[in-house]
Amino acid sequence: MTDFPIPVTRFAPSPSGYLHLGHAYSALLAYREAQKQKGVFLLRIEDIDITRCKDEYIDGIYEDLKWLGLEWPEPVLRQSEHFERYDQFLHVLEEADLVYPCFCTRKEIQAEIAKSPSAPHGPDGALYPGTCKYLDHAERKARVERGDSHAWRIHMDKAVKLAGSLTFKDRIHGEVKVEPETCGDVVLARKDVPTSYHLSVVIDDALQHVSLVVRGEDLLHATHIHRILQTLLGFPEPEYLHHELLTDENGKRFAKRDKSLTIKALRENGLSKEDVIRRLNVDIEKI
Length: 287
Ligand code: GLU
Hints:
By secondary structure, this protein is of the alpha/beta class. 38% of the residues lie in helices and 16% in strands. The chain has ten helices and twelve strands. Helix 8 (220-233) links the parallel strand 11 (212-216) and strand 12. Helix 7 crosses helix 8 (220-233). It is globular, with a radius of gyration of 20 Å. The chain starts with 7 loop residues before the first strand and ends in a 7-residue tail after the last helix. The structure holds glutamic acid. The site of glutamic acid has 7 residues, from loops.
């Protein structure tokens, strides 16, 4: 038996398209970090967006990663099978009065924002103007009971006060001060699914004992939200590695819509896994 927990890294794609070179880079880096620390590399399927995620893409993920030579333990966690678990943790936040139901439609939010020319903006655009935050308890309760469709938002200022000052440690970006208030009252459970990316990723990383979160720097701002959620839910703090995003020869980021640069297309065009790994320049020990 060891006194030290085993290092765990993970690759957590959303199966809403085929993997491209950027995904392969992320997966290979996470795999390499697990190898370097004699740890475990996990694959997790983040398919909470049930309308956009397809089994065909999940099969593609398995095929591509296996072709690249990666291995991971089974069973693979599929988030769509754990909605109840996310709901339980949401309930913990509800009991602590750290979330509130939001009945607004997208249109209503936009109209509210348009009314105030100096509406505060965050990394994802204008912040939620707080319309439902100020509903009184009786009205809130009545609307939930009558079945009005609602999302759940974090009460960010309350959460920040409770959590106090936080940081996270990133292998590339160093020690980063957590400023979740810049993201506003983000949605933790959507109207159509009983969770959100932020809530489920934090819960699963904790329950799967992920010690190093490797992902692209486009998600750096999300980590501010994740750190506060970890603190509120009593989860441990993982280390982070937010890597640079790969771009094509025109400097454009790879996206799921770039069909020609999917791993599947490269494979079908006769590239070997060694060609891909060389192009990505990740020093894998052996695969
Ligand atoms: N599922 C997310 C995506 O495919 C990544 C989640 C993460 O690495 O935290 O963009």
